């Protein structure tokens, strides 16, 4: 199952994006009171063809969100490598 997101600002559609059901892959294990593992693919979906906005394009917004997600996934993976 996928998730379809519509974000409106006033009457204007700012984001129309689909988030595919396979947007992430996580492998975790717990041993000796430590959680270890890895977060793999964590990718947002694509913008719909009808997305438009006056303050930014949907692609720009998704790119910014993806950059944020990638940063936090890197932080989480570094912690999971040694165990938390």
Description of the structure:
The chain has 84 residues and is of the alpha+beta class. It has one domain. Helices cover 30% and strands 38% of the residues. The protein is built from 1 helix and 4 strands. The strands form 2 sheets. Strands 1-2 form a two-stranded antiparallel sheet. It is elongated, with a radius of gyration of 16 Å.
Structural class: alpha+beta
Say what oligomer this is.
single chain
| Whole-angstrom Rg | 16 Å
Q: On the 0-100 scale, what is the average pLDDT?
A: 77
Which percent bin holds the helix content?
A: 25-40%
- How many DSSP helices? 1
> What is the 3D shape?
elongated
Biggest sheet strand order reads: 1-2
Number of strands: 4
Sheet of most strands: 2 strands, antiparallel
The SSE string, one letter per element, is: EEEEH
Count of structural domains: 1
End-to-end C-alpha gap: 31 Å
Low-confidence parts: none
Keywords:
84 residues, alpha+beta, two-stranded antiparallel sheet, 30% helix
Structure in a nutshell:
With 84 residues, the protein is an alpha+beta fold. 30% of the residues lie in helices and 38% in strands.
SSE layout:
Layout: E1 3-9, E2 12-19, E3 24-31, E4 34-42, H1 58-82
Antiparallel strand pairs: 1-2, 3-4
């Amino acid at each position: 199952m996928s998730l379809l997101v519509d974000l409106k600002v006033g009457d204007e559609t700012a984001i129309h994006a689909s988030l595919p059901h396979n947007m992430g892959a996580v492998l975790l294990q717990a041993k000796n009171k430590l959680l270890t593992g890895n977060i793999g693919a964590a990718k947002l979906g694509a913008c719909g063809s009808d997305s438009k906005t006056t303050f930014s394009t949907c692609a720009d917004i998704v790119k910014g969100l993806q950059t944020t997600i990638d940063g936090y996934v890197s932080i989480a993976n570094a912690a999971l490598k040694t165990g938390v």
